[in-house]
Fold each of these.
Amino acid sequence: MKAYLRQGGGSGKSSIATILTEKGWKIGSDDLLIVDNSGFAYSYPKKAQIYAYNLVGNKILKRKVYDSLPLQRKIIWKMREKILGNKQVRRRVSLGMVGDKIDYKPIKIKYVLDLRRTNQPESSVEKINAEDLAATHSHILNYEFRDYLNHRLYLETFTPDRNIVNSSFTQTRKVIEQALKNTEIYRINVPKKSTPKDMIKFIDSIIN
């Protein structure tokens, strides 16, 4: 795997991945990626959640996600976007719709790109290690699995062992640290108004 994009919603992962697949890259997942402690990534073919804001300035994604809708659903989409805003309108689509080229084989991770939206006027990059990445992004994993964790915590009130959830996160953090200890990891800070194409241009300057 040439690179692994990581961050929470709104950072630009889905938009960037769509454009990169048009350049010959393959997509492994949208929100979550399975990684083992030897540094190999495995596809997680969960449906991608594409929001209206993902389509802004991204003609490729707009054509696949919005233009393919029947007229009635387009009208509903636009009404919801106008009333609720572009962060509250989404469509769940298959990975094949986000990127035509999907990689289902285990692939060694070469780079990790940690994307962050900031208020700074220009993009910047800093190299970090696996421990930094695991420590600063444990809350993302916590958020993604919040429903499961709440259920486990409820069950644990009836069992003697109340540390199952905490131990699972500790173990996951250790796996991330072990898996990426020899991987090049870059924290990329991009201005909030940067377009996906702006970010790709900056990323290319780092890993090519």
Note: The chain has one domain: 4-207.
Amino acid sequence: MIINKTHYTSITSAGFFILIPFYPKKEFAEFFAKNEWLGCKAKSIDLEYFIDKWLTRIENDRIKTINIYN
């Protein structure tokens, strides 16, 4: 996940969904933390926390995850 001081990064998909990218390794996130995400940094999230908290919270909020694989 890439975050700035107060927010996680997201992508708007045709004005309908908010997409939040998640990366398998910190190095992947750091590679993409450029351009409009310059000044942001990679942050690790525990998998159990991600499944229990993130996925259940965003289920009904028109937020989708983008999961980048190795």
Note: The CA atoms of residues 27 and 42 lie 8 Å apart.
Amino acid sequence: MKITTHTGESAEALQKQAANSAQIYQLTNLFLQRAFKGLKELFTKEGFKAFLNVKRAIPGAPCIRLTKSIFKDERMVQFYDGYATYNGSNPYAAPATLNIIPHLERSLARISLSRVCTALLPAWLIWQRCLA
């Protein structure tokens, strides 16, 4: 990986950040996808899991503290804390829950690009027939 070569960060640190981001997303997804309608939401399998892991899912620490616990290189800390600024948040004050943004970019970008390609394929085939 070029990042490990240029920053000195280990591949394990990058994997830890990706896993941490995915875990926070999975545990908060219940509350992100729909409005929380009360305690009955906690009595589902998803809700119970989120409740048991609330300390890991919604760290009270700001983004920067969580990022600094993973990365040693200040450039990597700045890079990942930059995600908190997407919505105007300050990484020194914003909750570490915003660390789900890299996970969303990675997972949803693949899905979105796949859908775009699938949608454009018929138009491309028609274009190819017109050129023939």
Note: Residues 101-131 form the longest helix (31 residues).
